[in-house]
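does this look right to u?? zinc ion version
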Amino acid sequence: MKSCIVIALLMCSCAATGPEVSGIRALPHYSTLSLNERLMAEEIMRKALVSDRKDYYFEKLKLLINTPSATKETTKEMNISHFNRSVAAAKEHKEALAKSDVNLAEYQSIEERYEVAKPRKWVKYCPHKFSNPACFYYSAEDYTDILVHINIRLHGPPDLIAQELEIEDDIEKHLSIPGFNVNVVFTSRSGNDVFEVGINPAEWSTNENFAGGTITSSHEIMHLFGLNDSYDRIENHAGNPYVSVSDRLALFIIQMDDNQPVDAEDGIMCNSSKRPLQREVCEVVHGGKKCIDARIKRFGSAPSVFRRWNASLA
Ligand SMILES: [Zn+2]
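got this back:
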């Protein structure tokens, strides 16, 4: 029944027409698309034909269809390589700190100690977004001194879980900027305040799959806090073989109706290697303009640099 509906939609008079459309349908890979994928391609073409970016959309759709999905083995190699680099960097970082005058144990437990250093009012918030229906905690009475606590239970090969634990502190340090600290707790317990996350390197990283190392896990944790991506999904994924064709087509459609914020490229929701922007921090705690203004007044609006050890936090 479902297939009949799809075929009927494809054959109906609302199907896109024109030379660009015929060109897409004539691509050899087009014939390998599933019915659902063809339906999404049709939707893209219908929207593209009435857009002033028509040529761009058709060029990117052609790229997408001509870029088949990578095999699971290739995806696994790519993810494991990123993961290994992160673990090696974490090891180097720890060795460098151990040789410095910094107390390594104190440095690594900044977030854990800071959140119990004084009484705080905690809010339990459940984004009910994406497919991880769990809650995290935040303390934001003072927008210039925000703490966030998230519990995550990992599922996957024991060796990869052990590697994720190795990079836990680097994830916290990547997410934390002045006046915004994140305590990530990997736990073995379950509950409505524990996010269940897999580690499957054969699949692209998502908020349900921490497969790509420190900066990727950091970006995905921001998703668990409820934030959306702010990169251009067409630019980033049309030709990305590590994302399935079906997912790329769905992301393409979303992007056609979305605008990238002007400062997106400076923030972690666009570029995982960047730190959270003030507006992204404030979105985590639903602080709005009041929060953004308070934080910019205190810290400035420039993207933050990696936070240095600060003994006053102890
Ligand atoms: Zn994302």
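The first strand starts at residue 123 and ends at 125. idk if thats expected tbh
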